[in-house]
Amino acid sequence: MPVTVLLVDDEPLVRAGLRAVLDAQPDIEVVGEAADGAAVIPLVRSLRPDVVAMDVRMPLLDGIEATRAVLRSVDEPPKILVVTTFENDEYVYEALRAGADGFLLKRARPAEIVHAVRLVAEGESLLFPASVRQLAAEHGENGGNPAARAALERAQLTEREAEVLRLMTRGLSNAEIAARLVVGTETVKSHVSAILAKLGARDRTQAVIAAYESGFVAPG
Amino acid sequence: MPVTVLLVDDEPLVRAGLRAVLDAQPDIEVVGEAADGAAVIPLVRSLRPDVVAMDVRMPLLDGIEATRAVLRSVDEPPKILVVTTFENDEYVYEALRAGADGFLLKRARPAEIVHAVRLVAEGESLLFPASVRQLAAEHGENGGNPAARAALERAQLTEREAEVLRLMTRGLSNAEIAARLVVGTETVKSHVSAILAKLGARDRTQAVIAAYESGFVAPG
DNA sequence: GATCGTCTCCCCCGCGCGGGGGAGGTCCGC
DNA sequence: GCGGACCTCCCCCGCGCGGGGGAGACGATC
Prior knowledge:
The first copy, chain A, has eleven helices and five strands. The first copy, chain A, is an alpha/beta fold. In chain A, helix 6 (130-138) runs antiparallel to helix 7 and helix 9 (174-181) packs across helix 10 (185-199). At the A-B interface, helix 6, helix 9 and helix 11 of A face helix 6, helix 9 and helix 11 of B.
């Protein structure tokens, strides 16, 4: 059975584009559309889609509130893929915190869009903006310092947070990081929470994965 | 102040080699040697080294028991770097479980040996055999299937464990992995524990790091 | 001076994680 | 037949982790 998708976006053109891209796939089926967040819940209830592709910036009810509402009021909520125009959209991180499962740029190539839908449908998370990974690939072949710094800027990590994330990618615990940075464990926890929120990660493991996938750290 | 190291190996030649390599570094100082595990504890007590480079296979008291003994009987135990000849040494994993901090192949290049000592001295863990990473680099440029499979064999992961590790590198929780594999969460926990032991990882984050560093999974 | 972001530290709280055991099942090879 | 690996599931238990709040200090910016 195909992956069923509900499109939620105030721009008809965007909906049409997503529908064209997704319906071209044999294993994906767009089962409905909505123009604002307020219409999402009844549609989710009646259509029971696997994935909701949700715009963040919408009239009446934005993507963040709509995400919360869906997760709160539906028993087996669909996966929620947040769609946005800007890679540096602060709303996106709020949406991810609200429980969204993934992140998608409107200007992503069709193959990437399809990939994103399949991934979240399978239950996996799209932690980092796809643009960050792309950016890391563009800057030099092996994601060195400039790429890492650029990725950092995209994720809007502060210097301290970046340092903490680096130590996290070395496998250190909060207490070990605290000892290394000569601060309290509570401080480290604050930084870690901020990192998780900004990266849309659920736990430190997902944050480390995001760091590798984005080129923030390179293996080997 | 330099990193102080105690060498423990039954072969004088190996001790001499390690001493030559390490003493050539301005920031590393070999402060003592022992020929078997039984002599380690008093030496650790009197010399208080930062790092103990410990052979696994030794007469009287092997590296595993010696590691346990040191960690058990010394207040501020040194970091323990397990030294071995074979990358596929089952004793090594036991030693890591016993509390050793790192892993070193005797045939590693001098730079790698120095690096390993510095790393464990800093409190970081050398999770995976360095040989696995090297092996991943040799097999094709991007660590594809053959490299991953080879790395798997080195770590002696079973098929099921490899599958679980793969899902761990996707950021899934134990419950999510259980749902995906249609087994109980207790089963997943068993597999995860086995993976952590074989990889010498303390938690799932370190296991995921090891997976990336070894080429078991490739970013991007 | 007021505001903002950053870094620092504190509280309470629930839960997932990992360690320590054990145990039954299948399949394979000796 | 009998070990031995492997997969599966179970128990108890402690603790680290992460969420949700709040708050003070500092420097930069307006």
